[in-house]
Amino acid sequence: MDQAPLDASASRDVFGIDGAAARCPGVAEPAEPSADLLDRALAGWERFLSTLKGATDG
After folding, report:
1. Which long-range contacts (CB under 8 A, 24 or more apart) does 33-42 make?
2. What one-character DSSP code corresponds to residue 16?
3. How far is Cα 35 from Cα 43, in angstroms, rounded to an integer?
4. DSSP alpha helices (H): ranges in 1-58?
5. How far is the C-alpha of 28 from the C-alpha of 23, rounded, in Å?
6. What residues contact residue 33 under an 8 Å CB cut-off, 6+ apart?
């Protein structure tokens, strides 16, 4: 089933807001993950994958 493409102006038309004006004061913008966080996530993922090695379906 194909999804209809999203139209960014739809929220503006329906709710009368746009992205820049909708931001709340005092709420920080999401930041990019740090290299340290990405390294730790990768290490954890590799540890998880290593637990699957040798596992069989039978």
Report:
1. none
2. S
3. 12
4. 9-15, 35-52
5. 9
6. 41
- Give the pair of three-digit tokens for residue 24: 């709340």
Q: What is the pLDDT of residue 30?
A: 77
By the 8 A CB rule, do 18 and 12 touch? yes
Spatial neighbors of 19 by CB under 8 A, at least 6 apart, are: 8
Q: Residue written as tokens 């637990």?
A: 51
DSSP 42: H
- In this structure, which amino acid lies at residue 11? S
Report field, pTM of the whole predicted structure over 0.85: no
pLDDT, mean of each 10-residue run, the chain (58 residues): 61 58 70 94 95 69
